[in-house]
Design goal:
The chain has about 220 residues and is of the alpha/beta class. It is built from 11 helices and 8 strands. The strands form 2 sheets. Strands 5-4-1-6-7-8 form a 6-stranded parallel β-sheet, with helices on both faces. The chain has a two-stranded antiparallel sheet with strand order 2-3. Helix 10 links the parallel strand 7 and strand 8. The longest helix is centred in the middle third of the chain and has 18 residues. It is globular.
Length: about 220
């Protein structure tokens, strides 16, 4: 928690990851990925395997799901099939983690500005944002042309620009090593959540230093700064 306590400015802005942080999307992602793998005659995977595959965009998750040596041409064919299926089914099983909606509402009441940034397809990010967090989260940004995916800082920088916030007054919250790297690259301290796609030991190995075991811990950490 040291990096949070070092902030010279009051925290006004919270930037959240989506998958594994505010939404449990793993089951719908698993179904869509297995759909495209089956369609192309590739072996499918179990949900727990996908827990480690997702975090750095659909393209990378697909590469990790495929047999070694699969050509980029095949991957390019598979990506649109995945996107079409996932766009149609991204709300089948997906929902907020228990307690997240209460935290979002409390952050709003306390006057925090909030954003969601995700390597998920932008259309899906915006649909899920409106479905679950439209009244509580100010903006949502997903993968789109011209913006480098996380862990590059581009999405975070865009979110802060749209919110009118500086790095000095902002905190990043995510569940994976990609999120920790994103925070580092963006110059933001990071709160790592433990209900998502990675476990605490793994995150500590990546350098994570501040942890929320349950959603309410986010509020407790912020008000203690």
């Amino acid at each position: 928690m040291n990096e949070l306590l070092k902030r010279s400015s009051a925290i006004t802005t919270i930037v959240f990851d989506m998958d594994g942080t505010v939404l449990n999307t793993l089951e719908d992602l698993t179904v869509s990925m297995n759909y495209v793998l089956s369609k192309f005659g590739m072996p499918e995977h179990k949900l727990e395997e996908y827990r480690l595959f997702f975090g750095n965009g659909v393209g990378e998750a697909l590469r990790l799901s495929l047999p070694e040596g699969t050509s980029e041409d095949i991957i390019d064919e598979m990506l649109p099939v995945f996107k079409e299926h996932y766009d149609a089914h991204c709300l089948d099983k997906t929902g907020p983690y228990d307690g997240i909606l209460d935290v979002m509402r409390e952050l709003k009441l306390r006057g925090y500005k909030t954003a969601i940034v995700s390597n998920k397809i932008d259309s899906a990010v915006k649909e899920l944002h409106q479905r679950f967090f439209g009244d509580s989260v100010d903006i949502a940004i997903g993968e789109q042309p011209g913006i480098n995916r996380k862990p590059a800082p581009d999405m975070v920088n865009l979110a802060l620009k749209e919110l009118g916030s500086s790095k000095e007054e902002s905190v990043y919250i995510g569940d994976s090593e990609v999120d920790f790297m994103t925070a580092e690259n963006s110059g933001l301290p990071c709160i790592s959540v433990l209900w998502g796609f990675r476990d605490k030991d793994f995150l500590i190995e990546q350098g994570a230093y501040c942890f929320a075991e349950k959603p309410q811990d986010i509020i407790d950490i912020l008000i203690s700064i």
